[in-house]
Amino acid sequence: xxxxxxxxxxxxxxxxxxxxxxxxxxxxxxxxxxxxxxxxxxxxxxxxxxxxxxxxxxxxxxxxxxxxxxxxxxxxxxxxxxxxxxxxxxxxxxxxxxxxxxxxxxxxxxxxxxxxxxxxxxxxxxxxxxxxxxxxxxxxxxxxxxxxxxxxxxxxxxxxxxxxxxxxxxxxxxxxxxxxxxxxxxxxxxxxxxxxxxxxxxxxxxxxxxxxxxxxxxxxxxxxxxxxxxxxxxxxxxxxxxxxxxxxxxxxxx
Amino acid sequence: xxxxxxxxxxxxxxxxxxxxxxxxxxxxxxxxxxxxxxxxxxxxxxxxxxxxxxxxxxxxxxxxxxxxxxxxxxxxxxxxxxxxxxxxxxxxxxxxxxxxxxxxxxxxxxxxxxxxxxxxxxxxxxxxxxxxxxxxxxxxxxxxxxxxxxxxxxxxxxxxxxxxxxxxxxxxxxxxxxxxxxxxxxxxxxxxxxxxxxxxxxxxxxxxxxxxxxxxxxxxxxxxxxxxxxxxxxxxxxxxxxxxxxxxxxxxxxxxxxxxxxxxxxxxxxxxxxxxxxxxxxxxxxxxxxxxxxxxxxxxxxxxxxxxxx
Lengths: 254, 310
Prior knowledge:
heterodimer, A: 5-stranded mixed sheet, B: mainly alpha, two-stranded parallel sheet, 2 strands
């Protein structure tokens, strides 16, 4: 009887624990996509927006990465590697993906022909954050004298993991579903991590070292603009763009 | 013509294999702790080759080193299964050798599949758990092939406690196995920490209860007392390592840009002491079943004793 009760207790505990599955964080869907009819964009009326992403907190001090794991990394001409999840300088935040989350019109956006380029230099990704439109080719280069593996870990797209020999041919990839802050990492060098952002339209930008961004080619109308950071999350704002308007001062603050 | 049960060479070989499996578990833990599980993207080949040695730098040295040690263990397990089949007169030992072989094959396949599917937490956790089970099987074989097992008669000690020590020791094994599964699932980001902590409390209570039942009765044979004492010592070490792993990895290392030495040492130690705990609990359960009879059972009702004398 005791054995049976203990057995039931174990089974119940097992069922309880397996039910405690860690929730996967849902990824945002950048840009609206629908089966509704799409309209052509009148390029003569499009405007642009620009602004700065501010950081009001105290950024963690960048930590020196120990690249002794791989002598080729440690001896790289790029020198020492300092990493921080929040790249902020004088209150300006870099590596923020700014994109149109909701556009006023459903347009048949052309996929940019130019590649979005990610290079591996000195055992770090350059850039740390990249944006690409759905279907746009992303070119992964390896300028290092060591082998890397490129491991994409998406939620909305199929994952993949490929090794890349030193200074070898670029690996070309694209993603078919919109997804923000899609992590990409190298398991050979565990400090190497970057983020790909896949947007439904070409209306996006990534903030530079001074926190600045600019998005061109916006048709007139009311938008929901979003700024997303790998650690700090997403902020949105509503804004209106009039024909040919060059709107500046579109600032976000984290 | 069956040979005598005790073979010093086979026993030594089994012990060496058990030691290598212990090292293999440590190597596997190093792979996970260094986030190197996908440093070699393909399987069963490594960078497209079955035999060419890759450049052993970065995460590759952990992942490929783990694969090489696993191949050695696999080969030695084949030898163990054949040797046991040919030289051990006990039919159940012959089958246990085959079970060990089947387990190491399944373990290798799980290790490959988890790489091909980009380390889904449930496959990686199954890989980690089966490793511990495989270790216990070979440790049991080392015990069954020892001189002490072959040449010492069962004590037939009758104990009157309830639940019986047989029941308690069996649940110690099961609870530690569940705890290792939960630990692996947490480590591979499948579940939150709470189930592992709750289970740790259950395991701690069960081990203290069982060990104290054994150690407070001075008539219990030393073959049972020894693993019970070891369990308590290992439990204390494991609780400390669990706390150290939590602090170094979850609290202080949450935003670390790369695995830090302290978090690697604490988590790998936590994994391997967990393996020792499970193996010790298995030894305890076996020795209890061999030497201790429940108060209701007749003195001849000893399955392991029958197996030994068969």
